[in-house]
Specification:
This protein is an alpha+beta fold. It has five helices and eleven strands. Helix 1 packs antiparallel against helix 4 (about 175-185).
């Protein structure tokens, strides 16, 4: 396996606390592994939190796409490989997760932006970062589409009400991206524990759109994606990328709405693909 100059490998052992009700690692656990690998990779290349924190800045995850072949069980030895990709308005990053037999089990693509922590506003990429960023970075897989489709309305969607806790926050003082992955799945009916079925999408593409804080009231929604030529083309492209993945093309739209001052704000939206419809578990 070829290792490129900017590749960073993060080995880990899956712990029992990272396993869900269905016996495999949870999506938040997967997101945390990728986040840890990304942070260590950025630090090793000179544009991590050590560089940004003195400037009052931090990397903020704007989008994350996961293509999942399988999720691991407790005790498995894994290796997360990550690398910085194109730098434009966002810093893009790729991921690959391998099991002990060197089989690829997950790929990921992410886009990161910079936040001014004092003003709680997005900021341009600082010169100190751009100067040390790789000039000819390795490409990563594209997101499933340019802009994720928005859920048309809440009336026909399945929903679950949530309230943000202090325990959901990260070092930047807002809800950590890994928590959203759990909340996106919450409205879906869980398969019986003894059925052997897993609530795992073949693809999940998430756009993080607004911060959430303790006490915020959220509504996590999901509904079947409307049938359209563009959706058929998206599913066809995903099959082409990974023809051996277990996905027959059931597409689900997700959204997390925050209620504040009588208004509703979209905090997060996502699109997932499944082998079987998760709405009929």
């Amino acid at each position: 396996m070829t290792m490129h100059p900017e590749d960073f490998d993060f080995p880990l052992t899956v712990r029992y606390g990272e396993i869900g009700f269905d016996g495999v690692a949870t999506l938040p656990s997967l997101a945390n592994w990728l986040q840890e690998a990304a942070g260590q990779s950025a630090s090793s290349l000179g544009f991590g939190e050590e560089t940004l924190a003195p400037l009052g800045l931090s990397w903020i995850l704007a989008r994350l796409a996961l293509r999942i072949i399988r999720l691991p069980h407790a005790g498995e030895q894994l290796r997360v490989r990550t690398w910085p990709s194109a730098l434009d308005r966002f810093g893009h990053r790729g991921y690959e997760v391998y099991d002990a037999r060197e089989h690829l089990i997950v790929t990921g693509t992410s886009a990161w932006t910079i936040m001014n922590l004092n003003e709680r506003r997005l900021a341009p990429i600082p010169m100190e970062l751009a100067e040390v960023y790789p000039q000819k970075p390795r490409p990563c897989l594209p997101f499933c589409c340019r802009t994720l489709p928005r859920m048309a309305g809440e009336i026909s969607a399945q929903g679950t009400l949530l309230r943000v806790r202090r325990d959901d926050l990260d070092i930047n003082g807002h809800v950590n991206n890994a928590r959203y992955l759990a909340w996106l799945m919450e409205p879906l009916p869980a398969p019986p524990a003894d059925s052997g079925n897993h609530l795992i999408p073949a693809m999940l593409d998430v756009s993080f759109r607004a911060e959430c804080f303790p006490g915020d009231e959220l509504n996590s929604l999901c509904a079947p994606a409307p049938v359209s030529d563009s959706m058929h083309e998206l599913i066809r492209q995903e099959h082409h990328l990974f023809p051996h993945r277990q996905s027959d093309g059931y597409a689900i739209l997700h959204a997390i709405h925050r209620r504040q001052g009588g208004k509703t704000e979209e905090s997060c939206r996502a699109l997932s693909l499944w082998k079987k419809s998760p709405l009929n578990a």
